[in-house]
Amino acid sequence: MAENPQFETLTQSLSPTLQSLEQKRKELKKQGQSTGIWVGGVVFVIVSVFSVYINAALIGVGIAAGLALLAYYSCVNAKSQELSSYYKQKVIAQVLQSFCDNAIFTPEEGIKEGIFRSCGLFTSPDRYHTEDLIQGRVGKTNFSCAEVHAEERKTRVNSKGQTSHYWVDIFKGFLFIADFQKDFQGHTTVLRNSLFKLSFSGSRVKLENPDFEKTFDVYSTDQIEARYLLSPSMMERLLALDREFNKNITISFKDSNILIAIPESRNHFEASIWKSIDDLSQLKNDFSMIHALVSIIEDLNLNTRIWTKK
What is the three-class DSSP state of 112? Predict the structure, then answer.
């Protein structure tokens, strides 16, 4: 995503906050290091004594050192969560306000699991986590979005017949929901074009935009309504939005809303205890993502109301 010229101005206004946050990071890191040294020392002594007891002193000391270092790292790293809480409250909230002054940022909340399950874009998850809820209004359009991580539990059996379980991602990224510009009753999903056609509801819809057809597979419970929703201009706007988000999005039209799933492997809106706040790379990424998310409303021209929509 292209860097926005507002970024430099914003960082200047945030300078006192960032300085304060950097001081907080140093304090938390120091606390984590003190705890880590103590815990790591205890681990080293216990494992070393045990290894002597079982006559494996040489190997045991190496294992003890490794476990002690792991304990130390874990204690320091645990402070990242507390630092991220400050970062979200003091920095991310202000970044969001610069794009949408009525927006509310609630880090501990997210998109309800029922909405994810019913959107028709994914299989139902066995484990679901969501956070960093953003809610606001741009012009006439209400929107909300949050980070989502949905997983499926899988089972495998090894050559000895032993069973084990592991987790596979169904979706990881942002789920964006906005009030659509037109009222509608049915359910239309826009999935990635695939050799293996998969739909959770509705029948295949053929559209007249060849680029859109190459990129997406469209299914709907109402063929006429699907074409009404996916007008020529809307298809072009969705293709442009898809390019903006690295050609990965999927879309659901349901309950007079548009839901857009945006895959993203990076966990946004977090601060690292190990990295100086003066390193603005994380803030720049978060700034670009917030800008891109809020801009979806203008990108899709959702404030232009059609016919019965007010």
Answer: coil
Encode the chain (310 residues) as per-residue pLDDT tens digits.
445 568 888 988 999 999 999 999 999 999 988 998 998 888 888 877 777 677 666 677 788 788 889 988 888 888 988 999 999 999 999 999 999 999 999 999 999 999 999 999 999 999 999 999 999 999 999 999 999 999 999 998 888 888 989 999 999 999 999 999 888 999 999 999 876 656 666 899 999 999 999 999 999 999 999 999 999 999 999 999 999 998 899 999 999 999 999 999 988 999 999 999 888 989 999 999 999 999 999 999 999 876 555 5
Which letter does DSSP use for residue 161 in this model? S
Are the CB atoms for 213 and 146 separated by under 8 Å?
no
- Give pTM, 2 decimals: 0.87
Three-state SS string across 67-94, please? HHHHHHHHHHHCHHHHHHHHHHHHHHHH
Nearest to 8 by CA among 294, 290, 283: 283
Q: Whose CA is closest to 189, among 231, 214, 229, 218?
A: 218
Contact indicator for 168, 149 with CB cutoff of 8 Å: no
Type and span of the H or E element at 216? strand 216-220
206/164 Cα distance (integer angstroms): 43
Beta bridge partners of 192: 216
Residue with tokens 């890191």: 29
